[in-house]
TrEMBL record:
This is DUF1146 domain-containing protein. The chain crosses the membrane at residues 6-30, 42-61. It comes from Candidatus Zambryskibacteria bacterium CG_4_9_14_3_um_filter_42_15. Keywords: Membrane, Transmembrane, Transmembrane helix. It comes from the Bacteria.
Length: 71
């Protein structure tokens, strides 16, 4: 693996880590300090959307062939 690709992978992993830390902070604060049910619903929707977007970006980044999963 060329050094430039290793650096790129480290940067992508770092950005992904920062994204998940920020997503966790948002979800935690909405659940902990939200009054009523609405902030908790918003936190659940936000977490689901974050998981979907992270999964899609991981699949696209690693260039996984998803046709073997869809039959």
């Amino acid at each position: 693996m060329p050094p430039l690709e290793i650096i790129f992978n480290i940067v992508v992993i770092g950005i992904s880590f920062v994204y998940w830390v920020i997503a966790f902070i948002i979800v935690y604060h909405l659940n902990r300090f939200g009054i009523g049910v609405q902030p908790k619903k918003f936190a659940a929707i936000f977490l689901f959307g974050s998981l979907v977007l992270a999964s899609i970006s991981t699949i696209l980044f690693t260039k996984v062939d998803i046709t073997m999963f869809i039959k």
